[in-house]
């Protein structure tokens, strides 16, 4: 068995490393020969090691602004030429950041620039500043974008208006009243782009955190015969499905009580340390002659620092179980810490859920190394 240490994946912030900054400087010089590349690099590299990925993105935007001796609109003309030359979609997001930082007083020009820049990466973070400062006018324009021929632009209409977009501030107005962005989502509910559908589903899943009944009312009013609409509905309701919400399960055809037996549930090994893997396995056997649509999840009761527990539900699979049939199900999971989850020693219950109902389970003891 090899004992060579694993090579850690580079940190996300290294997307904006010194080499990438050199690339940006070279491409800027190519489209704007008067560009002060050395001054840009000095400004952008200062304290770079201590900055997070989003701080580095902001730093690039700030550094471009610091050395460009042009007015806002003339600067945008240069940055429009730069956008297709950048070698990373994520890196190109520094350009929408520039718009959000310096274009607040030029709504029409700035929104047009965000529409253009989003086709190279995404303007989802930048556009939220305009939604916060001028919600009505921004949403009206984004409603039009929901019908755009470019799927990047259509996706921006949904993603940018998400109430709980990760890595960004919340849109309190949309969070309080999801009807504000409902017209955008309605135009996209059968979109043929998976990129767009994922965004619509994520937007609606955000809304379920405060307004689950509103989302269910909306989706129950859709025609789910369209495969694209049905896909959005299933993924939009994923949090409610994990919670065993009967209406959500009914929407995807799994609202009936599961007529099954849970057999031979195993969580192995019984004792693990951080970095090791557990395997959950079991068999479901139908107890009726008719086929059934099943949604299978499992929950782990994570021990908290104070000794209490907090349940986390994981998607396992959806399936149609034949009448009288059986299905073996297995899932492996590595026990490791994340920034959003720390493991503490103790017994962690593992429960199997079918159509939102706990049918049985087991557990695992997490110990110190």
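^ Assign residues to that structure.
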């Amino acid at each position: 068995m090899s004992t060579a240490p694993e090579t850690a994946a580079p940190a996300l912030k290294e997307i904006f490393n010194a080499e990438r900054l050199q690339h940006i400087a070279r491409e800027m010089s190519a489209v704007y020969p008067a560009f002060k590349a050395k001054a840009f690099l000095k400004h952008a590299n200062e304290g770079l090691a201590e900055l997070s990925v989003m701080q580095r993105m902001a730093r690039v935007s700030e550094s471009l602004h610091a050395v460009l001796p042009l007015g806002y609109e003339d600067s945008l003309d240069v940055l429009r030429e730069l956008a297709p030359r950048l070698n990373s979609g994520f890196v190109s997001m520094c350009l929408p950041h520039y718009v959000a930082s310096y274009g607040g007083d030029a709504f029409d020009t700035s929104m047009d620039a965000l529409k253009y820049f989003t086709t190279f990466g995404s303007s989802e973070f930048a556009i939220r500043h305009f939604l916060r400062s001028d919600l009505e006018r921004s949403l009206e324009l984004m409603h039009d974008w929901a019908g755009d021929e470019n799927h990047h632009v259509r996706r921006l209409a949904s993603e940018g208006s998400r109430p709980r977009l990760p890595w960004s501030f919340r849109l309190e107005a949309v969070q309080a009243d999801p009807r504000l962005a409902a017209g955008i989502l309605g135009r996209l509910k059968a979109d043929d782009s998976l990129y767009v559908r994922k965004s619509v589903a994520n937007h609606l899943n955000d809304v379920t955190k405060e307004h689950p009944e509103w989302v269910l009312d909306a989706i129950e009013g859709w025609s789910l015969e369209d495969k694209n609409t049905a896909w959005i509905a299933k993924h939009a309701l994923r949090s409610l499905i994990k919670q065993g919400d009967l209406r959500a399960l009914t929407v995807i055809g799994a609202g009936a009580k599961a007529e099954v037996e849970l057999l031979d549930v195993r969580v192995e090994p019984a004792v693990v340390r951080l970095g090791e893997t557990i395997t959950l396995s079991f068999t479901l056997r139908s107890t009726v002659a008719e086929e059934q649509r099943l949604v299978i999840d499992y929950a782990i009761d994570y021990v908290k620092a104070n000794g209490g527990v907090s349940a986390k539900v994981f998607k396992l699979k959806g399936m149609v179980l034949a009448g009288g049939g059986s299905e073996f199900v297995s899932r492996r999971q590595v026990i490791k810490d994340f920034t959003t989850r720390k493991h503490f020693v103790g017994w962690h219950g593992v429960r199997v859920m079918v159509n939102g109902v706990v049918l049985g389970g087991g557990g695992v003891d997490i110990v110190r190394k």
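The beta strands are 260-268, 271-272, 277-286, 292-303, 309-321, 326-334, 346-354, 357-366.
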